[in-house]
Amino acid sequence: MIYHFADCQLDARAHVLMRDGQEVHTEPQVFDLLVLLARMAPALVTQDDMIAEVWKGRIVSDSTLAARVNAARKAVGDSGAAQGVIRTIPRRGVQMAVPVDAVADAPHAPQPTRKINQVIRYTTSCDGTRLAFAESGEGPPILRGSHWLSHLEHDWKSPVWRPLLDRLSARHRLVRYDPRGTGLSDRTLRGGDLEDFVADLTAVADAAGLERFSIFAASQSAPVALAFAAAHPDRVSRMVLIGGFIRGTKHRQDASVGDAMNEMIRSGWGKIGSPLMQAFSTIYMPTATPEELSSFVEMKQISAVPETAAQLRSLIAGFDVSDILDKVTAPVLLLHADRDAVHPVSESQELAARLSNATFHMVDSPSHVMVPSDANWREALQAAQAFLSAAD
Fold first, then answer.
1. Would you say residue 111 has pLDDT above 50?
2. Residue 245, phi then psi, degrees to nearest 5
């Protein structure tokens, strides 16, 4: 259903709000509240109605309800003082203050899509390591930092990563690469300190012809992105860092924990149906569907040999960017799951406190790797896309 009111158009199926011809970013709960108000207009929407439909029966505070109503007003160009579009009836609820016209869409009509392809190329880092990188989409450039492990071809077909790659490629020229020792890059791991990983990012950016660009980085690629941004402030327009950290696990936990994780890798790697690999992967993505988890395990098996995977994990655990944060000037959005079991949310909170131009956004999730099936994956991606669009 498509709802028209004031100068707004609300497409419930496509999840798009337009105001005065321009798309307006809305968080999922705010969008659902607008749909509820439009669908019930001109009837009153009570607090019980909102809790039942927007929060699916989960009890929330009055302040949370008020915050979402205020955000809905802002999205449609209204305010609490004016209440020209959304009216509050004290102690009873809220309602649309303007006429709403509902137009049925065509639910079975094919949606126009633009087929997105990736092109894989190669470059060489300063120490001679060969790096594979891929490009997809058109628009303002984004460089996606490398994972601990990745495989450009497998990720392109993965239910874990392809939805993210499609979202980023839909509006941007997306460049991403396999880190040294993994995927389609050189499988022989040489070097591997933080400076080598920064050099790899630099080599890919140069080979792709990126002069000034945004960076989208998660987990261990966050400190690499921060180090690059500190060294090249003129090249980075803004950064989205997900589940990142300042100091690796060697600086934060008992060494025996890392040793135990690496032993799981060496013992279970490459073994189909290995309980060790299933357990290891579940730590990173506890809410994953069986399909997502299976694809994640398969990616690990084809991306690197067990010894390289363990070596990389040990190298990354030693990263520490605490002494260069004052040199990072680009705007940064920090997204972090509140129950992340790999890197605690406190790492991003400290980043938010120490970076000069940072915004912190906590995500209600236990996942270090946020998967498309996670209830809050869309919220996190919408926040990231809205932040990145400010640099376009």
1. no
2. -155, 160
In angstroms, how far is CA 13 from the centroid of its own chain? 22
Do the bridges between strand 173-177 and strand 141-144 make them parallel or antiparallel, or are there none, so unpaired? parallel
320: which DSSP letter? Answer: B
pLDDT tens per residue across span 269-328: 756 567 777 777 888 899 888 888 888 888 888 999 888 988 998 899 999 999 999 999
**Alpha carbons 38 and 2: distance in angstroms, whole number:** 10
Dihedral over alpha carbons 316, 317, 318, 321 (to 10 degrees): 80
Q: Which of 350, 366, 346 is nearest to 358 (CA)?
A: 350
d(CA 189, CA 17): 48
Give the contacts of 13 (CB within 8 A, at least 6 positions apart): 1, 105, 107
Question: pTM for the full model?
Answer: 0.70
Which residues are CB-contacts of 223 (< 8 A; sequence separation ≥ 6)? 194, 244, 245, 246, 248, 319, 320, 321
β-pairing verdict for 332-337 and 213-218: unpaired
Beta strands 358-363 and 332-337, pairing class = parallel
Report DSSP letters for 332-374, one per residue. EEEEEETT-SSS-HHHHHHHHHHSTTEEEEEES-S-SS--TTS
Per-residue pLDDT tens digits for 181-217? 999 999 999 888 999 999 999 999 999 999 999 999 9
In this prediction, residue 112 carries a pLDDT of: 41
Alpha-carbon distances, residue 113 vs 108, 119, 154, 173 (angstroms): 15, 19, 22, 17
Quote the Cα angle for 315-319-322, to 5°: 170
Query: Tell me: the pLDDT tens digits for 115-136?
Result: 688 999 999 999 999 999 999 9
pLDDT of residue 110: 43
Domains of the chain and CATH, by start: 2-103 (1.10.10.10), 118-389 (3.40.50.1820)
Pairing between strand 118-124 and 2-5?
Answer: unpaired
Q: CB-based burial of residue 92 (10 Å sphere; 0-12 exposed, 13-18 middle, 19+ buried)?
A: exposed
* 213-237 average pLDDT score: 97
Q: Which of 47-56, 110-119, 371-380 has the lowest mean pLDDT?
A: 110-119
**What's the count of helices (H) and strands (E) in the chain, helices before strands?**
13, 15
**DSSP at 326:** G
